[in-house]
Protein backbone atom coordinates (compact mmCIF):
# COMPACT_ATOMS: atom_id res chain seq x y z
CA UNK A 1 0.00 0.00 0.00
CA UNK A 2 1.01 3.64 -0.45
CA UNK A 3 1.04 6.47 2.08
CA UNK A 4 1.12 10.03 0.70
CA UNK A 5 3.02 12.56 2.82
CA UNK A 6 4.13 16.20 2.32
CA UNK A 7 7.27 16.63 0.22
CA UNK A 8 7.97 20.02 1.88
CA UNK A 9 6.83 22.54 4.43
CA UNK A 10 5.87 22.48 8.07
CA UNK A 11 4.13 19.13 8.10
CA UNK A 12 6.92 17.11 6.52
CA UNK A 13 9.30 16.59 9.45
CA UNK A 14 6.64 15.84 12.11
CA UNK A 15 5.02 13.42 9.64
CA UNK A 16 8.25 11.48 9.04
CA UNK A 17 8.85 11.37 12.81
CA UNK A 18 5.32 10.13 13.43
CA UNK A 19 5.67 7.33 10.87
CA UNK A 20 8.98 6.38 12.41
CA UNK A 21 7.48 6.28 15.92
CA UNK A 22 4.74 4.04 14.50
CA UNK A 23 7.52 1.72 13.28
CA UNK A 24 7.53 2.76 9.62
CA UNK A 25 11.04 3.96 8.71
CA UNK A 26 11.73 5.56 5.34
CA UNK A 27 14.64 4.30 3.23
CA UNK A 28 15.50 7.50 1.43
CA UNK A 29 18.08 7.03 -1.26
CA UNK A 30 17.86 10.54 -2.66
CA UNK A 31 16.47 13.72 -1.14
CA UNK A 32 14.65 14.38 -4.39
CA UNK A 33 13.05 10.94 -4.58
CA UNK A 34 9.27 11.10 -4.74
CA UNK A 35 8.75 7.41 -4.07
CA UNK A 36 10.45 5.96 -1.02
CA UNK A 37 10.36 2.39 0.23
CA UNK A 38 10.17 1.59 3.93
CA UNK A 39 11.15 -1.15 6.37
CA UNK A 40 7.57 -2.45 6.04
CA UNK A 41 7.91 -4.35 2.80
CA UNK A 42 4.33 -3.72 1.69
CA UNK A 43 4.35 -0.02 2.55
CA UNK A 44 5.67 2.63 0.16
CA UNK A 45 5.71 6.35 0.90
CA UNK A 46 5.08 8.96 -1.80
CA UNK A 47 6.20 12.54 -1.28
CA UNK A 48 3.80 15.03 -2.82
CA UNK A 49 2.51 18.53 -2.21
CA UNK A 50 0.31 18.61 0.88
CA UNK A 51 -2.48 20.48 -0.94
CA UNK A 52 -2.64 17.70 -3.55
CA UNK A 53 -2.94 14.85 -1.05
CA UNK A 54 -6.77 14.92 -0.70
CA UNK A 55 -7.15 14.54 -4.49
CA UNK A 56 -4.54 11.77 -4.62
CA UNK A 57 -6.41 9.82 -1.95
CA UNK A 58 -9.80 10.43 -3.57
CA UNK A 59 -8.41 9.26 -6.91
CA UNK A 60 -6.97 6.07 -5.42
CA UNK A 61 -3.30 7.08 -5.85
CA UNK A 62 -2.53 6.17 -2.24
CA UNK A 63 -4.40 4.39 0.54
CA UNK A 64 -3.57 6.84 3.32
CA UNK A 65 -2.43 10.45 3.32
CA UNK A 66 -1.19 12.94 5.88
CA UNK A 67 -2.03 16.59 5.28
CA UNK A 68 -3.74 19.61 6.84
CA UNK A 69 -7.48 19.64 7.57
CA UNK A 70 -7.52 23.04 5.80
CA UNK A 71 -6.34 21.41 2.56
CA UNK A 72 -8.96 18.68 2.89
CA UNK A 73 -11.72 21.28 3.23
CA UNK A 74 -10.29 23.46 0.45
CA UNK A 75 -10.09 20.51 -1.95
CA UNK A 76 -13.69 19.46 -1.46
CA UNK A 77 -12.39 15.91 -2.07
CA UNK A 78 -14.57 13.02 -0.92
CA UNK A 79 -12.22 11.55 1.68
CA UNK A 80 -12.52 10.44 5.27
CA UNK A 81 -10.42 12.03 8.02
CA UNK A 82 -9.56 8.95 10.08
CA UNK A 83 -7.25 10.51 12.69
CA UNK A 84 -6.31 13.92 14.06
CA UNK A 85 -2.57 14.25 14.63
CA UNK A 86 -2.16 17.10 17.12
CA UNK A 87 0.49 18.94 15.07
CA UNK A 88 0.22 21.58 12.31
CA UNK A 89 -2.31 23.30 14.53
CA UNK A 90 -3.33 26.74 13.30
CA UNK A 91 -6.31 28.91 12.47
CA UNK A 92 -7.35 30.23 9.11
CA UNK A 93 -8.34 33.82 9.85
CA UNK A 94 -9.86 36.79 8.12
CA UNK A 95 -7.51 39.74 8.66
CA UNK A 96 -7.67 43.39 7.67
CA UNK A 97 -5.15 46.25 7.88
CA UNK A 98 -4.98 47.63 11.43
CA UNK A 99 -5.14 51.14 9.98
CA UNK A 100 -8.74 50.55 8.85
CA UNK A 101 -9.82 50.41 12.49
CA UNK A 102 -12.40 47.72 11.68
CA UNK A 103 -13.07 45.37 14.58
CA UNK A 104 -15.61 42.91 13.18
CA UNK A 105 -16.80 41.34 9.95
CA UNK A 106 -20.34 42.60 10.64
CA UNK A 107 -19.02 46.13 10.60
CA UNK A 108 -17.36 45.49 7.25
CA UNK A 109 -20.45 43.78 5.81
CA UNK A 110 -22.65 46.70 6.87
CA UNK A 111 -20.42 49.20 5.08
CA UNK A 112 -21.48 47.52 1.82
CA UNK A 113 -18.03 48.14 0.29
CA UNK A 114 -16.45 45.50 -1.90
CA UNK A 115 -13.41 43.88 -0.28
CA UNK A 116 -10.64 42.25 -2.27
CA UNK A 117 -9.45 39.24 -0.27
CA UNK A 118 -6.09 37.64 -1.07
CA UNK A 119 -5.90 33.94 -0.18
CA UNK A 120 -4.63 30.54 -1.22
CA UNK A 121 -7.88 29.09 0.16
CA UNK A 122 -10.22 30.08 -2.68
CA UNK A 123 -13.09 27.71 -1.90
CA UNK A 124 -12.94 28.22 1.85
CA UNK A 125 -12.91 31.99 1.28
CA UNK A 126 -15.86 31.86 -1.12
CA UNK A 127 -17.97 29.93 1.35
CA UNK A 128 -16.92 32.26 4.14
CA UNK A 129 -17.81 35.52 2.39
CA UNK A 130 -21.21 34.12 1.43
CA UNK A 131 -21.91 33.06 5.01
CA UNK A 132 -20.97 36.55 6.26
CA UNK A 133 -22.83 38.47 3.52
CA UNK A 134 -19.65 40.22 2.49
CA UNK A 135 -19.36 41.87 -0.91
CA UNK A 136 -16.03 40.44 -1.92
CA UNK A 137 -13.69 39.64 -4.75
CA UNK A 138 -11.37 36.75 -4.03
CA UNK A 139 -7.83 37.17 -5.26
CA UNK A 140 -6.38 33.67 -5.59
CA UNK A 141 -2.66 33.59 -4.85
CA UNK A 142 -0.39 30.68 -3.99
CA UNK A 143 1.42 32.10 -0.96
CA UNK A 144 2.63 35.21 0.88
CA UNK A 145 -0.91 36.59 1.13
CA UNK A 146 0.13 38.91 3.97
CA UNK A 147 2.00 41.23 1.66
CA UNK A 148 -0.91 41.83 -0.74
CA UNK A 149 -2.68 44.57 1.27
CA UNK A 150 0.66 46.36 1.69
CA UNK A 151 1.13 46.26 -2.06
CA UNK A 152 -2.35 47.57 -2.60
CA UNK A 153 -3.26 44.42 -4.54
CA UNK A 154 -5.91 43.41 -1.96
CA UNK A 155 -7.78 44.92 0.99
CA UNK A 156 -7.75 41.91 3.31
CA UNK A 157 -6.47 38.33 3.60
CA UNK A 158 -7.72 34.91 4.58
CA UNK A 159 -4.60 33.14 5.76
CA UNK A 160 -2.98 30.81 8.26
CA UNK A 161 -2.22 32.16 11.71
CA UNK A 162 -0.50 30.42 14.57
CA UNK A 163 1.21 32.91 16.91
CA UNK A 164 -0.09 35.93 14.95
CA UNK A 165 3.44 37.31 14.44
CA UNK A 166 3.36 37.25 10.63
CA UNK A 167 0.08 39.16 10.45
CA UNK A 168 1.29 41.72 12.97
CA UNK A 169 4.55 42.34 11.13
CA UNK A 170 2.51 43.13 8.04
CA UNK A 171 0.14 45.49 9.85
CA UNK A 172 -2.81 43.10 9.72
CA UNK A 173 -5.34 42.31 12.40
CA UNK A 174 -7.37 39.09 12.57
CA UNK A 175 -11.05 39.91 13.02
CA UNK A 176 -12.61 36.46 12.58
CA UNK A 177 -11.72 32.75 12.60
CA UNK A 178 -12.68 31.05 9.37
CA UNK A 179 -11.50 27.51 10.19
CA UNK A 180 -9.41 25.65 12.76
CA UNK A 181 -6.94 23.21 11.34
CA UNK A 182 -4.39 20.54 12.26
CA UNK A 183 -2.67 17.68 10.49
CA UNK A 184 -4.91 14.68 9.80
CA UNK A 185 -4.73 11.21 8.30
CA UNK A 186 -7.06 10.80 5.34
CA UNK A 187 -8.32 7.71 3.57
CA UNK A 188 -10.81 6.94 0.84
CA UNK A 189 -14.37 6.80 2.13
CA UNK A 190 -14.61 3.14 1.08
CA UNK A 191 -11.15 2.13 2.35
CA UNK A 192 -12.61 -0.69 4.40
CA UNK A 193 -13.57 -2.46 1.15
CA UNK A 194 -10.10 -2.13 -0.38
CA UNK A 195 -7.78 -5.10 -0.83
CA UNK A 196 -5.33 -3.40 1.55
CA UNK A 197 -7.95 -2.88 4.28
CA UNK A 198 -6.10 -5.04 6.82
CA UNK A 199 -2.80 -3.26 6.37
CA UNK A 200 -4.52 0.15 6.39
CA UNK A 201 -6.16 -0.80 9.68
CA UNK A 202 -2.80 -1.82 11.17
CA UNK A 203 -1.14 1.44 10.10
CA UNK A 204 -4.02 3.52 11.53
CA UNK A 205 -3.85 1.55 14.79
CA UNK A 206 -0.10 2.15 15.13
CA UNK A 207 -0.42 5.87 14.34
CA UNK A 208 -3.27 6.21 16.81
CA UNK A 209 -1.19 4.37 19.41
CA UNK A 210 1.63 6.88 19.03
CA UNK A 211 -0.73 9.88 19.27
CA UNK A 212 -2.47 8.47 22.36
CA UNK A 213 0.89 7.63 23.95
CA UNK A 214 2.33 11.10 23.41
CA UNK A 215 0.01 12.72 25.92
CA UNK A 216 0.29 10.01 28.53
CA UNK A 217 2.92 8.86 31.03
CA UNK A 218 3.33 5.74 33.08
CA UNK A 219 3.71 6.19 36.83
CA UNK A 220 5.35 3.74 39.23
CA UNK A 221 5.40 4.38 42.98
CA UNK A 222 5.98 2.70 46.29
CA UNK A 223 3.09 2.97 48.72
CA UNK A 224 3.03 1.86 52.38
CA UNK A 225 0.06 -0.37 53.29
CA UNK A 226 -1.67 2.24 55.43
CA UNK A 227 -1.78 4.69 52.46
CA UNK A 228 -2.76 2.23 49.76
CA UNK A 229 -6.55 2.70 49.71
CA UNK A 230 -6.31 6.48 49.67
CA UNK A 231 -3.67 6.50 46.92
CA UNK A 232 -5.72 4.10 44.78
CA UNK A 233 -8.78 6.30 45.24
CA UNK A 234 -7.04 9.39 43.88
CA UNK A 235 -5.07 7.81 41.05
CA UNK A 236 -6.47 8.12 37.51
CA UNK A 237 -5.95 5.05 35.30
CA UNK A 238 -6.96 3.62 31.93
CA UNK A 239 -8.92 0.85 33.64
CA UNK A 240 -7.54 0.68 37.19
CA UNK A 241 -4.08 0.96 38.73
CA UNK A 242 -2.09 -2.29 39.09
CA UNK A 243 -0.86 -3.25 42.54
CA UNK A 244 1.93 -5.68 43.50
CA UNK A 245 3.29 -6.45 46.96
CA UNK A 246 6.96 -5.49 47.37
CA UNK A 247 9.42 -8.26 48.20
CA UNK A 248 10.28 -6.57 51.50
CA UNK A 249 8.42 -4.45 54.05
CA UNK A 250 4.73 -3.62 54.40
CA UNK A 251 4.45 -1.72 51.11
CA UNK A 252 3.16 -1.97 47.56
CA UNK A 253 4.24 -1.03 44.05
CA UNK A 254 1.44 0.85 42.27
CA UNK A 255 1.47 1.28 38.49
CA UNK A 256 -0.85 3.43 36.41
CA UNK A 257 -1.13 5.54 33.22
CA UNK A 258 -2.11 9.21 33.43
CA UNK A 259 -2.49 12.23 31.14
CA UNK A 260 0.75 14.20 31.05
CA UNK A 261 -1.05 17.43 31.95
CA UNK A 262 -2.35 15.95 35.20
CA UNK A 263 1.06 14.79 36.46
CA UNK A 264 1.90 17.77 38.74
CA UNK A 265 -1.47 17.49 40.46
CA UNK A 266 -1.48 13.70 40.73
CA UNK A 267 2.11 13.50 41.96
CA UNK A 268 1.67 16.14 44.65
CA UNK A 269 -1.52 14.46 45.91
CA UNK A 270 -0.05 10.96 46.20
CA UNK A 271 3.12 12.32 47.83
CA UNK A 272 0.94 13.94 50.46
CA UNK A 273 -0.85 10.62 50.96
CA UNK A 274 2.42 8.78 51.59
CA UNK A 275 3.53 7.48 48.19
CA UNK A 276 7.33 7.47 47.61
CA UNK A 277 9.93 6.79 44.89
CA UNK A 278 7.69 7.96 42.06
CA UNK A 279 9.03 7.09 38.61
CA UNK A 280 7.55 8.75 35.50
CA UNK A 281 8.12 6.92 32.21
CA UNK A 282 7.43 7.90 28.56
CA UNK A 283 5.00 5.73 26.67
CA UNK A 284 5.76 4.61 23.11
CA UNK A 285 2.21 3.63 22.12
CA UNK A 286 -1.18 3.16 23.72
CA UNK A 287 -3.26 0.74 21.69
CA UNK A 288 -6.88 0.53 22.74
N1 LIG B 1 2.44 28.70 11.45
C1 LIG B 1 1.86 27.53 11.36
N2 LIG B 1 1.65 26.76 12.45
C2 LIG B 1 1.05 25.57 12.35
N3 LIG B 1 0.60 25.05 11.20
C3 LIG B 1 0.79 25.75 10.10
C4 LIG B 1 1.42 27.01 10.11
N4 LIG B 1 1.48 27.47 8.85
C5 LIG B 1 0.92 26.53 8.09
N5 LIG B 1 0.49 25.49 8.83
C6 LIG B 1 -0.22 24.29 8.38
O1 LIG B 1 0.72 23.48 7.69
C7 LIG B 1 0.22 23.13 6.43
C8 LIG B 1 1.02 23.95 5.45
O2 LIG B 1 1.75 23.15 4.73
P1 LIG B 1 2.48 23.78 3.46
O3 LIG B 1 3.66 22.92 3.25
O4 LIG B 1 1.55 23.95 2.34
O5 LIG B 1 2.82 25.25 3.90
P2 LIG B 1 4.16 25.72 4.44
O6 LIG B 1 4.68 24.72 5.38
O7 LIG B 1 3.94 27.04 5.03
O8 LIG B 1 4.98 25.82 3.11
P3 LIG B 1 4.76 26.90 1.94
O9 LIG B 1 4.08 28.08 2.56
O10 LIG B 1 6.13 27.14 1.52
O11 LIG B 1 3.92 26.30 0.88
C9 LIG B 1 -1.23 23.55 6.36
O12 LIG B 1 -2.09 22.51 6.70
C10 LIG B 1 -1.28 24.67 7.36
O13 LIG B 1 -2.54 24.81 7.97
O1 LIG C 1 1.04 33.28 13.04
P1 LIG C 1 2.45 32.85 12.78
O2 LIG C 1 3.02 32.07 13.91
O3 LIG C 1 3.32 33.98 12.35
O4 LIG C 1 2.41 31.80 11.59
C1 LIG C 1 1.77 32.08 10.37
C2 LIG C 1 2.68 31.90 9.22
O5 LIG C 1 3.17 30.57 9.18
C3 LIG C 1 3.08 30.10 7.86
O6 LIG C 1 4.19 30.45 7.14
P2 LIG C 1 5.61 29.70 7.36
O7 LIG C 1 6.23 30.07 8.64
O8 LIG C 1 5.39 28.26 7.12
O9 LIG C 1 6.52 30.31 6.26
P3 LIG C 1 6.27 30.41 4.69
O10 LIG C 1 5.85 31.82 4.47
O11 LIG C 1 7.56 30.04 4.11
O12 LIG C 1 5.21 29.46 4.37
C4 LIG C 1 1.86 30.81 7.31
O13 LIG C 1 1.88 30.85 5.90
C5 LIG C 1 1.94 32.17 7.94
O14 LIG C 1 2.66 33.04 7.10
MG1 LIG D 1 4.04 28.48 5.04
Q: Mean pLDDT, rounded to whole units?
A: 97
Radius of gyration: 25 Å
Bound heterogens, unique:
adenosine-5'-triphosphate, 1-O-pyrophosphono-5-O-phosphono-alpha-D-ribofuranose, magnesium ion
The total domain count is 3
Order of SSEs = EHEEEHEHEEHEHEHEHEEHEHEEHE
Oligomer: single chain
Distance between the termini: 24 Å
The CATH architecture name of the largest domain reads: 3-Layer(aba) Sandwich
Q: For this structure, what is the CATH homologous superfamily of the largest domain?
A: Periplasmic binding protein-like II
CATH class of the largest domain: Alpha Beta
Descriptive report:
It is built from 10 helices and 16 strands. The chain has 3 domains: about 1-85 and about 180-210, Periplasmic binding protein-like II (D-Maltodextrin-Binding Protein, domain 2, 3-Layer(aba) Sandwich); about 90-180, D-Maltodextrin-Binding Protein, domain 2, CATH 3.40.190; about 215-280, Alpha-Beta Plaits (2-Layer Sandwich). It has a 7-stranded mixed β-sheet with strand order 2-3-4-1-5-12-6. It has a 5-stranded mixed β-sheet with strand order 9-8-10-7-11. It has a 4-stranded antiparallel β-sheet with strand order 14-15-13-16. With about 290 residues, it is α+β, with helices and mostly antiparallel strands. It binds adenosine-5'-triphosphate, 1-O-pyrophosphono-5-O-phosphono-alpha-D-ribofuranose and magnesium ion (MG). 1-O-pyrophosphono-5-O-phosphono-alpha-D-ribofuranose (PRP) binds near residues 160, 163 and 166.
What are the SSEs and their pairings?
Elements: E1 2-6, H1 12-21, E2 26-27, E3 35-38, E4 44-48, H2 53-58, E5 64-68, H3 69-75, E6 79-84, E7 90-97, H4 105-111, E8 115-119, H5 122-131, E9 136-140, H6 148-151, E10 156-161, H7 165-169, E11 172-181, E12 183-188, H8 197-214, E13 216-224, H9 228-234, E14 242-245, E15 251-259, H10 263-273, E16 276-282
Parallel strand pairs: 1-4, 1-5, 8-9, 8-10
Antiparallel strand pairs: 2-3, 3-4, 5-12, 6-12, 7-10, 7-11, 13-15, 13-16, 14-15
Amino acid sequence: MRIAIPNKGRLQQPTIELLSAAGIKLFSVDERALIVSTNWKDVEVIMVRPEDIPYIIEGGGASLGITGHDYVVESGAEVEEVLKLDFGKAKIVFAVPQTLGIKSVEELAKSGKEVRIATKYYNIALKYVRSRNLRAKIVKISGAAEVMPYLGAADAVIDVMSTGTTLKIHGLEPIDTVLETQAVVVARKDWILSKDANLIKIVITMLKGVIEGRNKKMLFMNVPSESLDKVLETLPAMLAPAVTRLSKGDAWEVITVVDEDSIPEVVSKVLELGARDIVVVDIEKVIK
